[in-house]
Amino acid sequence: MEFSVFPRDIFADLERLQRQIQQAVELSPSIRGFPRGGFPALNVASTPHSAEVYGFAPGLDPSKIEVQLERGVLSISGERKSDLPDENDSASVHMNERFAGRFHRVISLTDDLDPNEVRATYREGVLHISIKRQESALPRRINIT
Amino acid sequence: MSEQNVVTRKAEGASDDHWLLPPVDVIEDEAGITLYADLPGVARENLDLHVEGDNLFIDGRVAVQMPREMEATHVEVGRSRYRRVFALSREFDIGKLTADLKLGVLKVRIPKAEHAKPRRIEISPD
Q1: Could you tell me the residue range of the domain that residue A67 belongs to?
Q2: C-beta atoms of B67 and A50 within 8 A
Q3: Mean pLDDT of all residues belonging to chain A
Q4: Beta carbon pairs, A and B, within 8 Å
């Protein structure tokens, strides 16, 4: 069983099940580079001190990526220009698989994150957002006297 | 190795035999063909682009620096390797192939051999 962004969220689980069925029905599930779920594809991980989000978003101008965190909800938006020729160009397009246009993805993270401690870097087409947890939310050892 | 791949590792069944198929755009004009491939997370030193026989191989490895003690909670990119093979036809001049990797996008340009370029044929009047 895979993990959900929203633990115990029945709708997220249903959506994933639907996606898995869809992938299983298609001839070669593994050749799907990215699920059609959205651009950019996101991986989320957590450490005891932070939440780490990786957006696989190649070919963007980093100054034009919008990242916002509000009450545990992270939103990533921007636009990716198409590399395809204009319609009136004589060149012919044989394959057109890459995403182009405006994108907007929203994910819900835990609510113990500190909105003032967000760091975002963009390298080799991967957007990495690291958000620290609030000090008060960190596990503390309680001394038993 | 294990540390670098925590986030792109799938819960089960992931190994080096599995890879992602990168999305591509392929555009042909009169002078040649241009291929764009999305390879986010692949640095120049981890990209292997080569021609073998009549095939063009794109092989890239994702290497993203990850903090320690990390636990993946949501994974959409479940492999750390991209691979795709394209068959080329004789009309392309492989010797003049140029490639450029920038911000995770690979751009490959292969010009057509001189003899394969379209020629306008003049029709002489009677």
Answers
A1: 38-82+100-136
A2: yes
A3: 81
A4: 147
Q: Which residues contact A84 (CB under 8 A, 6 or more apart)?
A: A93, A96, A100, B25, B27
Average pLDDT, integer, range A42-53: 91
- Closest by Cβ to B73, choosing from A5, A50, A83: A5
Average pLDDT estimate for A34-54: 83
Q: What share of chain A is helix, strand, coil (3-state, %, to 5)?
A: 15, 40, 45
Q: Give the closest-approach CA distance of B21 to chain A in angstroms.
A: 4
User: The domain spanning residue A52 has which CATH number?
Assistant: 2.60.40.790
Domains of chain B and CATH, by start: 24-116 (2.60.40.790)
DSSP A64-99: G-EEEEETTEEEEEEEE---SPPTTSS-EEEEE-S-
pTM flag (> 0.80): no
Q: Does B71 touch chain A (CB under 8 A)?
A: yes
C-alpha pair distances (Å), B47 with each of A97, A141, B37, B44: 20, 46, 12, 5
Task: State yes or no: pLDDT of A27 exceeds 70.
Answer: no
